[in-house]
Design a protein that fits this description.
alpha+beta, Glycosyltransferase, Immunoglobulin-like, 5-stranded antiparallel β-sheet, 18 helices, 17 strands, about 15% strand
């Protein structure tokens, strides 16, 4: 009996949430959200009074599609959706309206615009530029909005652009049409087409995805030793730029190809079977040629020889490991998972991989933080790593310190990525939960233990509202068969399933039994100023 009582006491103690950790997480999340809101307002103040659109940077007032539309504006949309709904319903929808009215040049494809009603930046239509900017807008901007918010006007904007990307794709090879000759644009297109195919099951998207993926898996890669060329010359059927870039502006093709295999395995398995061997050869060749001694990606290698061209590490190291981990999910090959784990260990040992103040950071500033932080969070979602999580907390302190008193970070479009990474980090610390309405004087932090989550609301002022929970967005927003790691996703943490039964305890009161569809309406809370509310959900 004594042993049984001791066991029960230990079990009860183990089940007690670590409220001090939840409080610490709430402070970290609260700062991330507050800083994100300040960036949003600082850039809204810089909008052109005539067009309503946002500048590229302090000394370039143009709305540049690949930058202003892709990397700045979308994350202001996401910030406003969670932190200030009147701004979301007002300014953010207004910018979308103006962008659609003023920047469409080739069907629904967008081009760069001067401020003050002066018209397009380029007097003549340059299709390669329009295709590049529009592909970036979709992949880096409209995809992440849809990942986290679901079916909004920005989703339909992406659909329109994608439809005209198919219709106007300017290049042909024997297997179909291509939007570009570059790995970046084709990789962007594959990622967009994969997710639209999951969601809509529209065969046009799937057919175009297959045409692009066939070009790489069955045509280009066998000719290059399974390293994609940065740029291919269709006229000579040979590399125009024979390097492969492991950093962004190059690595997009690998993520796109792994997404293509994941998609076709579910929707067109005979095609996925055809790509299995080329996929393995691609992933193996990348791991063989592209890692430094620590197991982290270099910047670029020569396609013909596999020799390193630029040895500096890729600051967005996690992006390529998303693809390697997806390869693990597709093949079951343990070496792919081990490569990801090895890289996570290396990042802990050398904090410069999270941000290199003397290297990549000198060129890219805060954006070098953003790409690394995002990659770490996506991988942490699949492979918990307490030491990497702690290293990320330290990196965030440096990241926060880059923001100026007026809310601006660095006066260029990369400030939008500051919002993205800060909010993604905040959701990590709150396990995907959020307070509605948002009040920066009220903090929310969480700790997780298996299927249970403990959430602590700390009110610096009286607050009344609801606690909202995340859902399985990969399934509900995209209709995906599996939640594989992918570029520009927002990781899912504690998600609420409609038909599942939950035990909910608020401030130690008698537990309530609630179904997920009830929790999805939001858990009502009222917290006096200077007090806390403790919520446990199992």
């Amino acid at each position: 009996m004594r042993l049984l009582l001791a066991f029960m006491a230990c079990a009860a103690a183990a089940a007690t949430p670590d409220w001090s950790a939840a409080d610490a997480n709430g402070r970290l999340a609260g700062e991330a959200l507050s800083r994100s809101r300040r960036v949003m307002h600082a850039w809204l103040n810089l909008a052109d009074p005539v067009t309503g659109l946002l500048p590229r940077m302090e000394n370039n007032p143009n709305w540049v599609v690949r930058d202003s539309a892709a990397d700045l504006y979308p994350f202001m949309v996401i910030a406003s959706a969670f932190l200030e709904r009147p701004v979301y319903d007002g300014s953010m929808h207004h910018i979308l309206r103006q962008e659609m009215l003023l920047t469409r040049r080739a069907g629904h494809l967008s081009d760069d615009l001067q401020p003050g009603g002066k018209g397009f930046v380029r007097p003549e239509l340059v299709m390669d530029e329009v295709m590049f900017g529009s592909s970036e807008y979709m992949k880096d901007g409209l995809l992440p909005i849809t990942e986290i918010l679901g079916e909004t006007p920005w989703y339909f904007r992406m659909r329109d652009i994608a439809d005209d990307m198919l219709r106007l794709a300017p290049y042909k090879w024997r297997g179909g049409r291509l939007p570009a000759q570059t790995a970046e644009i084709n990789g962007n297109a594959l990622q967009v087409l994969a997710r639209l195919s999951w969601k809509t099951r529209d065969p046009r998207y799937l057919d175009q995805l297959i045409a692009i993926a066939d070009f790489y898996f069955l045509h280009q890669l066998p000719a290059t030793g399974y390293l994609p060329a940065h740029e291919w010359d269709l006229a000579t059927d040979s590399p125009r730029r024979g390097v492969f870039v492991f950093s962004d502006h190059g690595n997009e093709i690998v993520g796109g190809l792994t997404e293509a295999v994941m998609l076709t395995r579910a929707l067109r398995p005979e095609k996925a079977k055809q790509w299995e061997t080329p996929l393995k050869k691609l992933l193996d060749r990348l791991l063989e040629t592209g890692r430094n001694a620590d197991g982290v990606w270099v910047h670029s290698v020569d396609v013909a020889t596999g020799k390193v061209v630029a040895p500096r590490h890729a600051h967005c190291w996690g992006y390529m490991f998303n693809a390697i981990y997806t390869g693990y999910l597709l093949t079951g090959e343990p070496r792919y998972k081990q490569a990801v784990e090895h890289a996570m260990d290396a990042v802990v040992k050398n904090p410069n991989y999270l941000f290199d103040e003397a290297g990549a950071g000198r060129k890219w500033g805060a954006n070098a933080y953003s790409d690394s932080i995002e990659g770490a969070l996506v991988l942490l979602n699949r492979l918990p790593h307490p030491r990497l999580s702690a290293a990320l907390d330290e990196a965030m302190k440096k990241y926060y310190a880059r923001q100026r008193d007026n809310g601006i970070v660095e006066y260029w479009y990369g400030d939008g990525n500051y919002i993205r990474s800060a909010m993604m980090y905040a959701f990590y610390k709150s396990q995907g939960a959020a307070l509605a309405p948002y009040d920066e004087r009220v903090r929310l932090g969480a700790v997780r233990e298996g299927d249970a989550v403990a959430l602590l609301v700390s009110a610096g002022a009286p607050w009344q509202g609801v606690l909202r929970f995340d859902v399985a967005r990969h399934r509900e927003h995209w209709n995906m068969a599996q939640n594989y790691p992918r570029l520009n996703e927002w990781p899912e943490w504690f998600t609420v399933e409609p038909g599942r039964l939950y035990e909910v305890t608020v401030n130690g009161a008698e537990p309530q039994r609630m179904f997920g569809f009830e929790l999805r309406k939001g858990l009502p809370l009222s917290v006096p100023g200077g007090r806390q509310a403790r919520v446990e959900i199992r």
